[in-house]
Amino acid sequence: MRELLARGREFLERKGVEEPRREAEWLAAHALGLSRLELFLALDRPLEAPEVAAARALFVRRGRREPTAYVTGAREFYGREFRVGPGVLVPRPETELLVDRARARLAGRSGARVVDVGTGSGCLAITLALECPGTRVEAVDSSARALEYARENARRLGATVEFQLGDALAPLAPGFDLLVSNPPYVDPAEAATLAPEVREHEPPEALFAPLGEPDHWARRLVRAGAERAAPGAFLLIELGHDQAARLGAWSELAGKPHATFRDLARIERVLEVGPL
Ligand SMILES: C[S@@+](CC[C@H](N)C(=O)[O-])C[C@H]1O[C@@H](n2cnc3c(N)ncnc32)[C@H](O)[C@@H]1O
Fold it and tell me: Does 122 contact ligand 1 (Cβ within 6 A)?
């Protein structure tokens, strides 16, 4: 086992993977079906050829800079495991702030109608359905592949969410009480700044706004969301790292109460609009 881990670390380091030692341990544990503690307890155990081959296959995929979550097939979000793979965005830790804000808005409200626009793996819709019993949750995505993951995640985690394939708010009846969304907000002109794991493997439709218009989706959601929301509703939209600085220029926000919330890196990450 020690030799496998040392070779894995060297290989991943050569391929430019960050934290190659931790990654090699993580992937080897996954390939062998061990916890990290079990992996360390087995450091001196000789390995069978199929075990070595299984671990090597994962090292090779990670060496091609596939996201770790695609290689292992899962990522934790808000304490639950979501299945992910090519074709769906890997849930990010900063998006958990959006769940916190949504829970605060839904506290003490039974029967609220929540919509998630651009649901991807379903991480927001499913988490809210499970954390806020009594809410009715609907979720939309324009990617059929993403919706396959979202439906499978809802089934595995025991959440009731109505998923719909379609464009933005089009499939949703008006009158929702809370809209949540983590829309695409990367300007394609900035693509070169993204890590290879993101740029080369995650779905472009989940990452990129139209060229030169990184605020396109957030502004459209504020506009269309405000038109279709129930009286007193809130919109919660995730922002890219530099988006909040431009909010003052958004005509869509004029006259609407709004606030931003910072993530753990102190970035203004969530825009809250309302009560509408
Ligand atoms: C940044 S990802 C967010 C995924 C997930 N909500 C999360 O936070 O991990 C954006 C999602 O919006 C979807 N999307 C992009 N354009 C869309 C559109 N016009 N209508 C609906 N969904 C769209 C993408 O397929 C992708 O799943």
Answer: no
- Which pairing describes strands 229-238 and 176-181: parallel, antiparallel, or unpaired? parallel
d(CA 82, CA 69): 10
The 10s digit of each residue's pLDDT in 141-199 is: 999 999 999 999 999 999 999 999 999 999 999 999 999 999 999 999 999 999 999 99
Question: How many C-beta atoms lie closer than 10 Å to residue 240's C-beta?
Answer: 19
Report cis status (omega within 30 of 0) of the bond before 275. yes
Q: Which two tokens stand for residue 131?
A: 């954390």
3 state DSSP class of 198:
helix
Tens of pLDDT, residue by residue over 107-128, are 989 899 999 999 999 999 999 9
Amino acid at 259: A
Q: Is 89 in the pocket of ligand 1 (CB under 6 A)?
A: yes
Q: What percent of the chain has pLDDT over 90?
A: 99
The protein residue with its alpha carbon nearest to ligand 1, atom 12, reads 118
Q: Which helix (H) or strand (E) holds 74?
A: strand 74-77
Taking the CA of residue 118 as reference, the ligand 1 atom at the shortest distance is 12
Going by CA atoms, what residue is nearest to atom 26 of ligand 1? 206
For ligand 1, what atom is nearest to the CA of residue 170? 20
pTM of the model: 0.96
Q: Please say if the pLDDT value at position 86 is more than 90.
A: yes
Pairing between β-strand 258-262 and β-strand 268-273 as defined by DSSP bridges:
antiparallel
Q: Ligand 1 within 6 A of 184 CB? A: yes
Distance 6 CA to ligand 1 centre (A): 39
Residues 4 and 247: their CA atoms lie apart, in Å, by: 51
- Tell me how far apart the alpha carbons of residues 157 and 208 are, in angstroms, rounded to a whole number: 29
